[in-house]
């Protein structure tokens, strides 16, 4: 028998109570209006309209914080007399419930439904239900909560309302209270809790049936039945349900979900309960995870609860399925929910799609995690509720206490151990990236989620940190595909997972601002768009997004492959696949805040380096000369469903349509969970028509996986082409440079450090996270370059319109020149893309006619002894001597003197709205 339910979705009367005066039984004339629940005051325009235009995050169209009272009259059927009745409020803030003026109680939990027993207060006929929702009470003001993504303005916002299921439910006095399904070999160990409120001891008949719901092959095992004693009060019945030899297991490749139905018949009364479960056992094996008999490499994203249309997470399974299928299309298999826990619908969707979930308590406390007794009790209760509410879901493979916590380590360990004792169906961790200055796994942790590890893990005091993500090597080491983290993780005997990797900023397409038609407005993007126009670059945003996005994708690939190249690594968690529109506006995703594509990289391209099986090519550099023999080692990271027999790497080096070299390496068997060498590739480059940009294609037979890598081949040279050209090379725009220009000469200024009045430090990679949040670290904030690859400057230096690895040596120590004082129409030939916080027009190569002379200014780093730099100098020299070097008189001598006047005259330029100057 299905329990009787009454949906409470619909129209409710609303009264706002900003002063907390109380409003039970308020007169009808004192309502502020009506609202439809599920919904929020933001969605219906209640509260104040914020006037500020912050750059740091999106802006709510309406904002109300404080108690709000929701009232509705509900007809209760006569058939409910004598039944137990509960009222469920899913996904709200702190709630207090009254029925016909009688206070029932309060619930404080941001992560699970609030369930009230209203049996004694409810009678057949019309009853008045009043719910007080307070999004500004003491529980919301807890330090760890306020910063968490459960309520923060930077993500889902601190809305007021009810956004999930809202219902009354009636059950018989003899009923099933809970069904707990514990995977056990080919079946489930069941713990079924019954309650007998009938007033006397009874007997009953318990029947449990299972049905697979989403597997390619259906499975209907025989049900089990048992006579049970039903003494007064609560009883837990232990049963084992063997599903038989055809039982289906659950993981990312075959997410077979079973729907379990338990029915209780006690004669006069009957009840039924349903739950979803899966045959999934998760464990730690050495330094990696295992689901069943498969080694798992976590390829995750950090979900920060960014849903800009509503400001809150979906509570429908279909929306979450769509969300997660986008992630799965990008090769991801894991979600970490950063300092929040999603609703039931997210777990249901992950069960279906095959995603490993790690939700967290609503805690982000870097100063005093669990130090206060009240905090410990709050998070203990929240953890208990999360485990009880969602514990049966097979996708729920790990659980954490929050993000970047630091506080009472003993209590943190105690709470982790307590969670494991209560529910051993998953892995546990005290937090993600805890103890920032001295990161270490907790004594009870199954995983070590961290961005860095101590250089000396045994040091008694804080040690220098080394990253287990690309914040170290992508920008600071010459490019190769050999970096891994094996030395960094060697001291640890548990899985190490890279925390919030990536974070490469991408310039926005400001058309996105017009997509914000819900409860949030992108006033931050609108401010940045006005700033770009103020700097005479209106309309350049799309070009900047394409160029910075292409570079970001390149850097993401290197960071992900570095993780895959590391034997025994636990995996990584991106921050993020999508943009984070807060904390300074961190546009770090290859998809926007709506999870829509930016056109930067397509899912199938992303899966070339982020998938269960990834072919890898290990080479010590990207740039070669035509006198060398190319060498690289091919590998296969096989975290797919099974081993690969007869895996042979087929490779080819191509120059456009022309094949330069190719071959097939000897085949071998690659076990599941193995990072396996496939052999060494060698090819002479003597036949390459250098300079050339080549592709190396790599495909592994026995899989559907193929990939490709760029390499650049240049002529082997030892001369300095700039030494033999009829161009005067100067290091300052000094009197001699002006004299040469007056004589009609061609002049190249390669400014030394002291020759530039306004310039920034060089960087290859795009800015980390965003400039505003980390500018105190002295980073330049730039986002790569933009150029026209067809410009004759690049006649002998093959390039796209954005930076790639061949630009690394030229950019790492370049000095982008601020040319805001140049005429509005002035276009640098090679420009650095500035942070949205300044939007300076930045030149790395610029040219102009000065009288009868022609001037080029190059602040790229031309000093390194490296083939890419040598080749750029060759292409530069040829261009400067050619008729193509014939620029318009774009900049006057006065402006040139201002731009290149030397740092001795440097002063403040603009204010904080434009960003401070970075020099050094």
Automatic annotation (TrEMBL):
Domain of life, source organism: Archaea
Gene3D superfamilies noted in UniProt: Galactose-binding domain-like (2.60.120.260), Glycosidases (3.20.20.80)
SUPFAM superfamilies: (Trans)glycosidases (SSF51445), Galactose-binding domain-like (SSF49785)
Biased composition, class Basic and acidic residues, residue ranges: 46-58
Annotated stretches, region: Disordered: 18-58, 456-484
PANTHER family on file: BETA-GALACTOSIDASE (PTHR42732)
Protein name: Sugar-binding domain-containing protein
Organism: Saliphagus infecundisoli
């Amino acid at each position: 028998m299905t329990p009787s339910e009454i949906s409470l979705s619909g129209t409710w009367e609303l009264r706002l109570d900003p002063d907390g005066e109380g409003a039970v039984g308020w007169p009808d004339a004192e309502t502020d209006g009506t609202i439809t629940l599920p919904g929020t005051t933001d969605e219906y325009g209640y509260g104040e309209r914020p006037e500020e235009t912050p750059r740091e995050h999106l802006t709510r169209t309406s904002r109300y914080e404080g108690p709000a009272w929701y009232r509705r009259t509900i007809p209760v059927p006569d058939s409910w007399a004598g039944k137990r009745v509960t009222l469920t409020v899913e996904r709200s803030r702190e709630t207090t419930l009254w029925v016909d003026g009688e206070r029932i109680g309060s619930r404080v939990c941001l992560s699970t439904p609030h369930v009230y027993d209203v049996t004694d207060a409810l009678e057949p006929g019309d009853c008045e239900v009043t719910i007080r929702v307070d999004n500004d009470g003491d529980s919301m003001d807890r330090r760890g909560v306020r910063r968490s993504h459960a309520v923060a303005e930077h993500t889902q916002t601190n809305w007021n309302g009810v956004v999930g299921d809202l219902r009354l439910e009636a059950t018989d006095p003899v009923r099933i209270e809970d069904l707990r399904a514990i995977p056990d070999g080919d079946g489930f160990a069941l713990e079924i809790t019954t309650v007998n409120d009938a007033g006397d001891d009874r007997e009953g008949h318990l029947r449990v049936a299972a049905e697979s719901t989403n597997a390619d092959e259906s499975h209907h095992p025989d049900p089990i039945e048992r006579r049970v004693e039903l003494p007064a009060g609560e009883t837990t019945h232990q049963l084992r349900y063997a599903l038989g030899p055809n039982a289906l297991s659950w993981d990312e490749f075959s997410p077979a979900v079973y729907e379990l139905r338990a029915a209780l018949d006690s004669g006069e009364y009957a009840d039924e309960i349903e739950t979803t479960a899966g045959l999934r056992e998760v464990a730690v094996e050495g330094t990696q995870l295992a689901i069943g008999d498969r080694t798992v490499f976590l390829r995750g994203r950090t979900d920060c609860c960014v849903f800009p249309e509503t400001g809150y997470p979906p509570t429908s399974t279909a929306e979450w399925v769509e969300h997660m299928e986008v992630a799965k299309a990008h090769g991801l298999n894991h979600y970490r929910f950063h300092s929040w826990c999603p609703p039931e619908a997210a777990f249901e969707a992950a069960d279906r799609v095959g995603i490993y979930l790690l939700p967290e308590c609503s805690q982000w406390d870097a100063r005093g995690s669990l130090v206060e007794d009240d905090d410990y009790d709050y998070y203990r209760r929240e953890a208990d509720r999360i485990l009880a509410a969602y514990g049966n879901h097979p996708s729920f493979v790990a659980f954490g206490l929050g993000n970047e916590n630091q506080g009472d380590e003993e209590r943190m360990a105690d709470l982790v151990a307590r969670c494991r004792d209560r529910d051993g169906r998953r892995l546990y961790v005290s937090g993600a990236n805890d103890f920032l200055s001295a990161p270490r796994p907790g004594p009870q942790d199954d995983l070590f989620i961290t961005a860095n590890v101590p250089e000396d893990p045994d040091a008694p005091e804080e040690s220098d940190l080394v990253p287990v993500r690309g914040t170290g090597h992508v920008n600071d080491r010459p490019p190769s595909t050999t970096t891994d983290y094996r030395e960094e993780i060697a001291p640890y005997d548990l899985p190490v997972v890279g925390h919030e990797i990536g974070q490469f900023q991408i310039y926005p397409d400001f058309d996105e601002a017009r997509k914000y038609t819900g409860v949030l407005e992108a006033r931050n993007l609108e401010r940045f768009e006005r700033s770009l126009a103020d700097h005479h670059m209106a309309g350049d945003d799309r070009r900047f997004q394409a160029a910075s996005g292409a570079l970001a994708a390149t850097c993401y690939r290197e960071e992900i492959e570095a993780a895959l190249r590391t034997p025994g690594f636990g995996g990584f968690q991106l921050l993020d696949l999508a943009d984070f529109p807060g904390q300074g506006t961190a546009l770090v995703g290859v998809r926007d805040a709506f999870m829509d594509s930016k056109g930067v990289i397509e899912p199938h391209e992303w899966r070339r380096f982020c998938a269960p099986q990834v072919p890898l090519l290990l080479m010590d550099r990207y740039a070669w000369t035509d006198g060398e023999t190319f060498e690289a080692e091919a590998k296969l990271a096989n975290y797919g469903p099974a081993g690969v027999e007869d895996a042979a790497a087929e490779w080819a080096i191509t120059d456009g349509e022309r094949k330069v070299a190719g071959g097939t390496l000897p085949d071998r068997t690659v076990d599941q969970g193995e990072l396996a060498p496939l052999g060494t590739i060698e090819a002479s480059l003597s036949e390459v028509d250098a300079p050339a940009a080549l592709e190396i294609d790599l495909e592994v037979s026995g899989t559907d996986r193929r990939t490709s890598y760029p390499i650049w081949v240049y002529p082997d040279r030892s001369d300095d082409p700039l030494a033999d050209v009829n161009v005067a090379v100067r290091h300052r725009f000094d009197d001699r440079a002006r004299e040469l220009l007056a004589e009609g000469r061609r002049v190249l200024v390669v400014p030394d450090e002291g020759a530039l009045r306004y310039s920034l430090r060089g960087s290859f990679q795009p800015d980390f996270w965003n400039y505003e949040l980390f500018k105190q670290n002295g980073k330049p904030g730039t986002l790569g370059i933009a150029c026209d690859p067809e410009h004759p400057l690049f006649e002998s230096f093959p390039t796209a319109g954005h930076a790639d690895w061949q630009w690394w040596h030229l950019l790492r120590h370049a000095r982008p020149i601020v040319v805001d004082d140049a005429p509005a129409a002035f276009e640098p030939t090679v420009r650095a893309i500035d942070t949205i916080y300044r939007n300076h027009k930045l030149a790395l190569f610029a040219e102009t006619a000065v009288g009868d002379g022609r001037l080029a200014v190059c602040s790229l780093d031309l000093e390194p002894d490296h083939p890419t730099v040598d080749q750029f100098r060759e292409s530069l020299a040829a261009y400067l001597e050619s008729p193509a070097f014939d620029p318009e008189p774009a900049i006057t001598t006065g402006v040139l003197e201002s731009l290149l006047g030397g740092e001795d005259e440097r002063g403040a330029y603009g204010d904080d709205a434009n960003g401070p100057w970075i020099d050094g």
